[in-house]
Design brief:
It contains 22 helices and 11 strands. By secondary structure, it is of the alpha+beta class.
Length: 578
Amino acid sequence: MNLRAYWRFVVVAYQFLPLMLAYARDRRRFLLFGGSRDVSNEQRRNRAASLLNSLLTLGPTFIKLGQLLSTRPDILPPEYIDEFTKLQDSVPPAEWPDAKAVLEEELGPVEERFAEFDTDAISGASLGQVYYAEIDGKPVAVKIRRPGVKDLVESDLKVVRWSIPLLIRFVGDAQAFSLETLADEFDRTIRQEMDYNREARMLTEIKANFQDNDDIRIPEVIGTHSTGRVLTMEYVPGTKISDVEELDTQHLDRTRLAETLQRAYLDMIIEDGVFHADPHPGNLAVQDDGTLVFYDFGMSGYVDPFIQNKIVDFYTAVAAQDIDAILDTLIEMGTLSPEADRQVMSDVMELAIADARGEDVEQYRVQQIVQQVEDTIYEFPLRLPSNLALVLRVATVVEGVCVTLDPDFDFISVATEYLNEEGYIEAGVRDFVDDRVQEGRDAVESTVRIPPKIEDALDRVEREDFHIRADVEDSERVLERLGKRLVLGLALAAGGISTSMLYSFQPDSTAAIATAGALTLGVGFLLYRSFRKQRGIRAKPQFTRQNLRQREDEEAANGALGFSDAAVQQSDDGDDGR
């Protein structure tokens, strides 16, 4: 296993080395020295396409890694996120004899266990492939783990672990934190996804939670034909949720479908604490009567009670548009640095709320906020703890699906209505009243404690025994920069005077004049550099729904989608998991 992992490390390094060198040169133009260099949006887009090709070349593990990265805006710039959303979990299925060997090792002879079995896979994913079959006349979907994939994944996980310390050298502290949590999350989720016994348990548990909801349909597990490497489920056909033309042909209410989807995930995350974590269009379908069907529970997880409560607090604060409460909740969850500039983050949150409501945001306002971010922080202070990673993935992907169904879908209104119906808003009001009552009690107690302390302080002032110690907090190192500039300014003035005097009184001392002049110019250059703003990788504002629509329209007009309709359809069909 180690020899295979070492060889894979060499292969991976060969694929990624050109990009790593390019990123290193962005920070130091000549690797060991030189200033940073600007990178255009087009260059980032080209690099993202190159990285996408490398992930496809490296196979199943890295395809999964790319899919995970496509939901991590705390790690990748928008151009990479856009490019990686094209990455479909669709690869050619393994040869039937190899898949049959796995199936018969787990269940016995195919002819004895199934009345019919179609040997042409209906989908081929990176970790498994799905076949249509029948048991006693009942149609089923049989999911078989890809032969040999476990050993390959184990080797690749070691490569990912070895690579993280190297990648951290190319990013800032916030991205380094996210990369480390990403490695933990990826290791855990891909192992869980290969365990079909776990998937069967999660599917059964989530199905039980929705047993009284007629708007949701989840396939039933056929336990007699399921093991750790084979999962047999009820076959439930439907129209893919992103096929809006077909949904319109069936006269289905797309806005209602979007609301059903969001409410289903609010139920799973806030109420049940167990959720389906891979809601991309290939895993969601709609039946003729409008029932929403979920497929593929390989990526699923639990939400701990603390996070559940904080998510409720977050939605409640968003519903009230209480920006301070939103920021406090993000800090408590660990997703926002306590040292972040609250004014800048407040502006960003106001913009995000307006966008989530589907409102058109004036472009100058977007530019203004982006400029604030660039002028005050060099690394966006958002980070993603591992216990929130899957929840964020769900929120990101569900938003994309809902916007596909209804471009003007209002997430906040639906969430607020849900919280009201479930009693969370009223509970929040009761907590608010309790907090105010406690504050009143504390104020009464303070009126008793404070006067003696004031009297003691005044007595010390009379005895001239009162001292004040002040610590200056300078997290932005302003005083240090001012001190350096003052010293450099004095040195520049002294150098200029010395050079002038040498030139005037000792014109024959050319070496001394040249040396003094060179030193003065060097000090002047350092002083000039101290006034320049630090430069990092900057992107034009691309994070509003309005901008996304404009970009999609432009891409459609230019025919620059990069994939033919047939190829997209083929890739999408590969993810149905039916």
